[in-house]
Design goal:
Aspartate Aminotransferase, domain 2; MYOD Basic-Helix-Loop-Helix Domain, subunit B; about 675 residues; alpha/beta
Length: about 675
Amino acid sequence: MKTENPNTPIFGTPEEARVAPKFEMPKTSMPGEVAYQLVHDEAMMDGNARLNLATFVTTWMDDYARRVMTENMDKNMIDKTEYPQTAEIERRCVNIIAKLWHSPEPPYCTGTSTVGSSEACMLGGIAALKRWQKRRRAKGLPTNKPNFIISTCMQVVWEKFAIYWDVEMRMVPVTMEKITMDPQDVVGMCDENTICVVPIQGVTITGLNDNVKEINDALDKLNAEKGWEICIHVDAATGGFIHPFIDPDTVWDFRLKWVLSISVSGHKFGLVYPGVGWVVWKDKQYLPEEMNFAVNYLGANIPSISINFSRPGNQVLAQYYQFLRLGMEGYRQIQQNCIDVCLYLKQQLKEMGIFEFFSDDMPNPLFIWKLKNDSSRKWTLYDLSDALHAQGWQVPAYTMPKNMEDVVIMRVVVRQGTGKDLADYIVNGKQVPYHLIDIADPGYKYNVFEYQRDFLNAYESIKQKGSLPVVCGGTGMYLESVLKGYKLLPVPENPELRNRLANKSLDELTEVLATYKSLHNTTDVDTVKRAIRAIEIEEYYAHTPVDERSFPQLNSLIIGVDIDRELRREKITRRLRQRLDEGMVDEVRRLITQGIHPDDLIYYGLEYKYLTLYVIGQLTYDEMFSQLEIAIHQFAKRQMTWFRGMERRGFTIHWMDARWPMEEKIAFVKSKLKEI
């Protein structure tokens, strides 16, 4: 539906001048674009999902994943007759996940997708209940008092399970002395009516893992003594997609005798947007027949295990996309990055000296902390949480569960896309100090003069600490400006010159700039703004004497990485794909949403230029990727040319082969340091 007058802007329509109905439908319809704007504007009041450190759910997926989900959002997961390939892909995902957990069942493994891990937990619990009931009835024993064992740090779904299916929930206390579920406490609570024990991998409150193997061994002994068959359902909502990649040697899964079912969240560290979970049974014999329903009104007898019925199939397809796209190594890298960022944040909090941690262990990318006792302190963690929320960050403060209700804690969960830049500065769990990163606001036109000034400040600070400054990255010109001590001046804006050049084309500006200097590369003339600024600088230098600037004498060791053309191109392309996967597009969208003009981002060139053109709709994704890839390759080639020019200008660059093992590279640098 279109507006009556196509020339009337959305915000000029009568609907925009009225309060939108909130609790009843409007009497008449309205144009789609107006309804969209109303909903869009209200949704803007929500917090930024990427800044939500409270949630476990995935808040970022790449453009191809979003495309898969958009293209298939109309498919009904339950209708396996109409959408047989989606059903086949669901079966593939079940098998992939089952094999991650060392399922002994040959293809095809028994399991199903669910709306989330809560439904998956319910199904695991129901299966345990039904198996227990069947065994009791076969022996002529009552079935009216089932119970299950779980820790006090359980997720609320288990409380729902207990209430919905009338099963007693027996909770093992978690305390400062016993920070995970104690196996002996578990067996002490078990009796003939215990349907299962539920250890958790990635406890919601603490981030820790219950020791499934020790619980399994304790149950094995108890079952042998009593003639019981108390099984284990592992709630691996978080850890199910962490263990196989970060800690594959820990035995917690189907390798253990009494682990008969496992549930996991696909929309947590499975890396899919919210609404998908998975539950897998060790063998089809452990899925009670009465839980497998069949309906025929969709055109065939269709089996259904899940509690829910109709639900979108696009999340299942997105899960399969992630498995294909990332593979074992991709998942490992992402999960490790998340843990590394957690370690960084934890170290920063530790250095403040006012916080205490619940545990030194961090098997999953989350941790909790509390305030140290200090009677003079005038604020609480609730105050801190409010202050962070005022800045857009969601970091919850809450009390610990039963037996520790007086302890107030805060929790951080790190997911894909959180702190990705800082992760590069974590080596073996230790943060490497860095300088001159995130020192200018987006849209600011940073220049060489300012870099020299900031370099000198950082250089002196590092030297005063008795440390060796290491400069890495940056363009050849910026590096040479500090190694050689270029004498530069801060160049102010020239409004009269800018007005005079405002209507000239890029080609015309290029010709003007060429009258000032030789154009050995195109960096200064890839946009109109860059060209005008370059002319402004040259004009200022032409009429302003350069004062002497004091630079320290730098006794530098210059190390270069020698890499052949094809390997360089391969590494650049792979790194570009990785950075796009990690959220570069979302970063640009966020900057534009925050008010940065697209032209200011285009001014930066390279990534910001092409990503901005894509975000504002001037390039398709494939066009953006192709053109950006070419531009980076060209830039890398120009940089190598610059470095060879530095050698001709008297700099000694010690080149090492990019293909050397890391140990050999380190030895090479150490040997050169001894020579200076």
